[in-house]
Structure formats: C-alpha cells, structure tokens
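Quick one, tokens below. Sequence please?
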C-alpha cells in the first residue's frame, strides 16, 4: 500500500508516512506506564495470596483472638488496592486507541487539503487522488486497532520479561567444573577455622574448629541464636562459608558436587515440611526407588507402622496440606521414616523433639535412637536429657565454641554446660 501511495503521489505519500511517526512516542509512553503499574500489580496480587493463605492456615488463631474484623479489613484494603491499580492501568493506557484515531484523522485531513492543492496546480490528477485516498484508508484502517492490540501484546511481553528475569537468576552456590562425586563417608567431618555471615559485616560464626569422627554422635547445645542450626546447615552446603573450610574425608565440600554431598546427609528438623499427598509419597521423598517392604521397615523403625496400618487406606491415605491430618508427633515420625528410607551415613537432627509433649517425645526419641545407630550424627538440642549419651557435647555461645567434651567432663568444668544443666535439672535434683 505504501508503494501504491508513492506511485500516485510521492508528495502526499511523505505526508501520510510522516503522520505514522507520531505513533512512536505515545506507544513508548504507554509501555513505560504499563511496566510501572504491572510491577505494583504483581506485588499486590502476591500480597493478596499471602493474606488468603495466612487467613486459611491461621483460622484458629484468628478466631481465638477475635481478629475476624481485622483480617476482613486487611483483605478489603488489599483488594481495593488491586482494583485501584487495575483502574490506573485502564486510565493510563486506554487513551492510546482514540489517540490513534485522532492522529489518523489529522493525517487524512492533511492529505485531502494538500491533495486538493496539487489537483488545482495540475501536479496530480483527480484519478490519482482518488486512488491515493483509497490506498491510504486501506493502510490506516488496520492501524486504528493497533492501540488496543498493542496494550494486550505489551502486557504479555512484560509478563514474559518477568518470567525470564526469574529463569535467568543464577544461584550463589555453584558446583565447580572439576567437582568430584562423594560416594561414601569413611573418616570424619572437619570444620577448620570456619567463619560465616548471613549479612556482610555481621559474623554469625567465629573461628569454628570441630572434628566429627565417622560413626560418632556430636551434640550442639547453647543459647538461642548462638549458631547451632547454622553449623548444621553448612555441612550440606546450604550456605557457603566466608572463611576457612569444611572437609569430609579430607576433601573440601566446595570440591564435591552438591547433589552427591546431600545424598549422604539425612536431615530431621523441628518443623518438618510434609507435602500434600499420601503417606507413601511423603516417605518416598527420601528414596523414590524404595519398595513397600523398605517403606514398612522404615515406618516400623520410626514407630509409626501400627498407626499407618490402622488408617483406612494404609500407605495410600491422604495426609492433607502440610500433613494437617496428622498430629505433631506423627509428623515428626513420618519425617524420621523419610530419613530412614534415605539411609544416609550422616544424620542431622535439628531440635527434632523440642515441639512435642513428653509422651510423644519418648516415642519420637526411640525412633531417633534407631535412626542414629551406626551413623555419624549431629544433634541440636535444648533438652539436655536427650543428648547426655552423646560421644561429644559442644557448647556454642554467640557463634563460638565455649566448651566441648563428654557429659561428665563438662559437668566437672562447672562452666557454660554446667550452668545450662543446672537450670534444667535443679528442681529434679532437689
């Protein structure tokens, strides 16, 4: 169509094409406005989902503290903001389509005015002018719809940009190109002058030196926030240390592939995450190739087999979102069964019984004792009664090793461990 315009009158064609250049600025303006509003909208929609999930998961707390009106208010506020952003998007972008019509109308008016002048001068014939107008209308008509289509397309492209921004993120912890595979643990785990910080300039661990021989049980105790959980998280390389080294069988864990390293470690946390699905599916997370016989053996070792056999569908019983249909002790034992199925040589127990009552704790502790047999174990505990038989007890205070030794040795020192022990057992001893 542009060629037809040029053929009939290059003068009028220049005017018609020049008008199209005025499309560029408003389209760029709209894209900038859309990007600004879309970023706020995505964040706001995330907050809507957060409130929705928190309201559902915390409904007991909300009812207990009579917070129904407060959470309704929060939800209405955030949905009002979402509506406001949607209206801003409409008001900020929908002027583009009518503007396109105005620009094109101006273009047509200029062409008619100049065309009339050129016909009078004899530069072009009336036939050329009619052909030119026909071609111009055929060119302009589809461009009128560019406004609405452009908004939809840009909305999609901006969403795609956000997706690729996330997909292009690179993890801070990477395997070296020369990383080796760790197939077994024969000797020990060694912390050599380890320093660590979550935030630059604020060290959490200071010069940690610790050796954990294979097959031994090491207990980490101390004040809250002292760095016990951080030490356990460094062994599977969930974080990279700032200074020093952590070695397994003499090899720095940075020289070992993350996948093979973590395959050698089973972790049981204070608050274990269970996935919606069946009992069997959650146990198989430890080892997807385990057969039913192995699963039942793991459940027996975790003192959970009788409970599972009593369920309507046995292993295929649904446990609900995050295991909501199970009690606290049953969740812990299911997590322990998962660790049994993994059958890893290193076991990390992070406050695995602290959230349980005395009866549940005894059952879970029995399951943990089964799990700890013939393995290298790192136990983090506040209840000192659960770790008195450990091969070594390490007291961590304020990111430093204050004391280490057996239960009897540390009591004789009458230091930090003695103070902790006295606080917990003074009444019983009295």
């Amino acid at each position: 169509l542009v060629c037809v315009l040029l053929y009939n009158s290059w003068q009028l064609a220049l005017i018609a094409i020049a008008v199209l250049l005025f499309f560029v600025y408003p389209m760029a303006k709209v894209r900038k406005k859309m990007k600004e509003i879309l970023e706020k909208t995505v964040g706001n929609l995330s907050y809507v989902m957060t409130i929705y999930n928190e309201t559902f998961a915390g409904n007991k707390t909300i009812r207990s503290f009579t917070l129904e009106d407060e959470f309704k208010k929060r939800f209405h506020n955030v949905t009002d903001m979402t509506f406001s952003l949607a209206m801003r998007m409409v008001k900020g972008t929908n002027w583009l389509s009518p503007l396109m019509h105005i620009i094109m109308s101006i273009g047509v008016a200029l062409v008619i005015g100049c065309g009339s002048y050129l016909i009078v001068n004899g530069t072009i014939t009336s036939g050329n002018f009619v052909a030119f107008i026909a071609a111009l209308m055929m060119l302009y008509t589809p461009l009128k719809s560019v406004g609405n289509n452009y908004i939809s397309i840009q909305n999609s492209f901006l969403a795609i940009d956000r997706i690729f921004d996330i997909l292009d993120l690179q993890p801070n912890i990477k395997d070296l190109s020369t990383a080796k595979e760790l197939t077994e643990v024969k000797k020990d785990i060694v912390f050599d002058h380890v320093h660590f910080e979550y935030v630059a300039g604020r060290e959490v661990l200071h010069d940690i030196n610790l050796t954990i021989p294979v097959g031994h049980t090491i207990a980490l105790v101390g004040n809250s926030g002292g760095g016990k959980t951080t030490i356990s998280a460094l062994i599977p390389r969930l974080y990279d240390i700032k200074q020093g080294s952590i070695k397994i069988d003499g090899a720095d864990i940075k020289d070992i592939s993350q996948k093979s390293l973590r395959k050698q470690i089973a972790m049981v946390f204070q608050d274990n995450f269970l996935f919606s699905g069946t009992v069997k599916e959650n146990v198989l997370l430890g080892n997807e190739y385990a057969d039913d016989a192995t699963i039942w053996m793991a459940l027996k070792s975790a003192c959970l087999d009788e409970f599972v056999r009593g369920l309507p569908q046995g292993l295929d019983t649904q446990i609900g979102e995050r295991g909501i249909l199970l009690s606290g002790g049953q969740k812990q034992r299911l997590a322990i069964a998962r660790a049994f199925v993994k059958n890893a040589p290193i076991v990390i127990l992070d406050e695995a019984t602290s959230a349980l009552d005395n009866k549940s704790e005894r059952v879970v502790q029995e399951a943990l004792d089964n799990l700890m047999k013939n393995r290298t174990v790192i136990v983090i505990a506040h209840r000192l009664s659960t770790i008195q038989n450990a091969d070594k007890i390490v007291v961590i205070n304020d990111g430093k090793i204050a004391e280490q030794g057996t239960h009897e040795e540390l009591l004789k020192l009458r230091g930090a461990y003695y103070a902790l022990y006295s606080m917990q057992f003074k009444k019983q001893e009295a």
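The longest strand covers residues 188-199. The mean pLDDT is 84.
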